[in-house]
Amino acid sequence: MPPIITAFEESPDRGQGLARDMPVRWALEEVGQPYDVRLVSFGSMKEPAHRALHPFGQIPTFEDGDLALFESGAIVLHIAESYTGLLPEDANAKARAIMWMFAALSTVEPPIIQREFSHYFERDKSWHKERLPMVENLIRSRLEDLSRRLGDGDWLDCETFSAGDLLMVQVLRRLKGTNLLREFPELSAYVARGEVRPAFKRAFDAQLAIFTGKSRHRGEGDACSAGASHMRR
Amino acid sequence: MPPIITAFEESPDRGQGLARDMPVRWALEEVGQPYDVRLVSFGSMKEPAHRALHPFGQIPTFEDGDLALFESGAIVLHIAESYTGLLPEDANAKARAIMWMFAALSTVEPPIIQREFSHYFERDKSWHKERLPMVENLIRSRLEDLSRRLGDGDWLDCETFSAGDLLMVQVLRRLKGTNLLREFPELSAYVARGEVRPAFKRAFDAQLAIFTGKSRHRGEGDACSAGASHMRR
Fold first, then answer.
1. Integer angstrom CA distances of residue A116 from A24, A119, A129, A169, B150
2. Which domains does chain B possess?
3. Where would a tag sit more exposed on chain A, N or C end, judged by fewer CB atoms within 10 A?
4. What pLDDT sits at residue B214?
5. Exposed, middle or buried: residue B229 (CB in 10 Å: 0-12, 13-18, 19+)?
6. Which residues of A touch B101 (CB under 8 A)?
7. Measured distance CA(A28)–CA(A163) in Å, rounded
8. Lowest mean pLDDT among A77-86, A209-218, B99-108, B216-225
9. A164-200 burial, b for 16+ CB within 10 Å, e for fewer?
């Protein structure tokens, strides 16, 4: 039996691939491991059955035999450790790739999430216009540092794509279409390099198929059969 | 030569052990690995020499032979992988311990950092009083979920302390003295269980010694000789 992941039944980003099943799908596609998907509604995510898998009532989860995991970074690392293709063999290079995974999620992403929090919950507040630039300057500072380190390299550590790049590209994708990312052409090009990878495209198409399937046939049937391979209810 | 970590020359939290060298020190103490400390000023952190080690110009860094790492979560994981005592031997239990490391840093910590951001940069703003409860409700939601999962267990996954508990306790320590943490007695007790560990105490005392040494002898000499073992300039 292939591993089973969970994803949103109703894509909150309308298939842009920003939900956290996306890096897990991408990692599985990079290593060539087929997977099944179980879709969950916003309601059922908060029910005890799902919370037994994910105590914070979110997606994704990952079930493989006796093992059940939540937290996308941990799932991607588990996949990277279990198959070849996402971590270098050299021990030091591997430690650095994992370092970039943490850097993506702990240092670069949090201010980007703050910006989204502002967008979703504060855009009608009187303070939004004054506060947003404070958050954006924090993001800009992180992007400056990241861009300087990346330089003209293809990937963050030497010339080989790793799980660190996978998570960093996925984090930066949250800024697509913003001036923030456009200010850093090296980072825009870095994101584009990630997005043209065949594994990225397969993962992206698979999550998009849920949204387009739902759009066309909302409530009429099995969303999981709408396009993506390796899916089941 | 023991590994070398970097820490703040001037403790911004006055020795409360909330800076990110603390989890690295704690991990090294748990596995019994002596270490050296190089103190860096706020100015020198942003200089090219330090940025070569840490592209975001922060602490901690970790140097061990040919390997140089930044990002406290990655350093703790590297220590946990390199020595015994912080990760279970069973493969599935190990994956779950690493999952809790990511959960601490990616799910529980970010809203806590948002609250600190508000405290430091927005407490004089007109909106602070209205906005703070929004952030605190987000934190509260995470703590509720975490507390429910912990239940009456000693540690997050079975009865053995792991690197996941180390990071989670350290994240929750940021809320010490707040009503938020007091609302969850199980989590307060969990933090206390972490803090009475001998390795925690040694790590805490070592970072405190820098602050108290600086307080008594500010500018008069070698802060690194002020109390903690395994330290050098």
1. 21, 5, 14, 17, 29
2. 4-85+198-226 (3.40.30.10), 91-195 (1.20.1050.10)
3. N
4. 67
5. exposed
6. 74
7. 11
8. B216-225
9. bbbbbbbbbbbbbeeebbeebebbbebbeebeebebb
CA distances from A157 to A162, A164, B63, B201 (A): 8, 9, 17, 36
* Cβ–Cβ gap B98/A77 under 8 Å: yes
pLDDT at B149: 97
Spell out, as residue ranges, where chain A has pLDDT lower than 50. Answer: 216-233
Q: At what angle do helices B91-102 and B163-172 cross, to 10 degrees?
A: 20
Secondary structure element (H or E) that encloses residue A117, with its range: helix A109-121
Task: Please report the DSSP string for A177-222 in residue order.
Answer: TSHHHHT-HHHHHHHHHHHTSHHHHHHHHHHHHHHHHHHHHTTTS-
Contact across the interface for A103 and B56, Cβ inside 8 Å: yes
Tokens of A119: 């967008």
Rounded to two decimals, the pTM is 0.92
Q: In this predicted complex, what is the ipTM?
A: 0.92
Kind and range of the H or E element at B139?
helix B128-150
Q: Is the peptide bond before B60 cis (omega within 30 degrees of 0)?
A: yes
Which residues lie below 8 Å from residue A165, measured CB to CB, with a gap of 6+? A100, A155, A156, A194
From the candidates B71, B77, B79, which should be mutated to test the interface with A, based on the most A CB atoms within 10 A?
Answer: B71
Q: What are phi and psi of A161, to 5 degrees?
A: -60, 140
pLDDT digits (tens, 9 = 90+) for B157-214: 978 999 999 999 999 999 998 999 999 999 999 999 999 999 999 999 999 999 998 6
The answer, yes or no, to whether residue B109 has pLDDT greater than 90, is: yes
A98 closest CB neighbour out of B77, B109, B125: B77
Query: What pLDDT score was predicted for residue A214?
Result: 67
Tokens 């979703």: give the residue: A120
Q: Residue B56 has which token pair?
A: 């975001």
